[in-house]
Amino acid sequence: MLIYKKGDRCDVANYRPITLLPCLYKLFSSLKNQEISIILDAEQSMEQAGFRKSFSTIDHIHTLELLIEKYQERQRALYIAYIDYKKPFDTVSHSSIWKALPEQGVAKEYIQILKSIYSNNTGRVKLENVGPSIPIKRGVTQGDPTSLMLFIAVLESIIRELDWGTSGLNINGFCGMPFLIRNARNVQ
């Protein structure tokens, strides 16, 4: 099902897909999500404050404001790049999910359950008639309780793979929206 967001109603990019899921499945998924969330939350870096208990993105915003203020006081250059993902939940590859979960300590049994849920998924478009089945090979199921944690796990995996120390670059995740911060113009 597509939910209109804003903009031109004739542009499909202005709609967000939502999966209509059976109530029993959502209950099962919620229970599994609670168990997996405990594991994944313990593995998240301190910089990831979005959607976590006892964390606030306001703290990170305040830290960023202080950092800017200190650099202005010292009349030093500070470069901040904000990364805004376009349709982030739609673009996560399933292979990146299966790579991220074991890296962050999720048990094989949970991964197998998730793999069975995501394998052989299809979607259909209904205009005047219902169209043919279309295989779904990427994205997390929007409307599924596990989707947010799966996305955050993939983002954490990507952040861990990057070697920020050699370039003096830092990364901070705000609700899954990273900021790149550097005190020099050359970022390679």
From TrEMBL:
User: Domain Reverse transcriptase: where?
Assistant: 1-188
Q: Which residues form a coiled coil?
A: none
A Pfam short name: RVT_1
Supply the SUPFAM superfamilies for this chain.
DNA/RNA polymerases
GO BP terms = DNA biosynthetic process
Source organism superkingdom: Eukaryota
InterPro entries according to UniProt? DNA/RNA_pol_sf, RT_dom
Name this protein carries in UniProt: Reverse transcriptase domain-containing protein
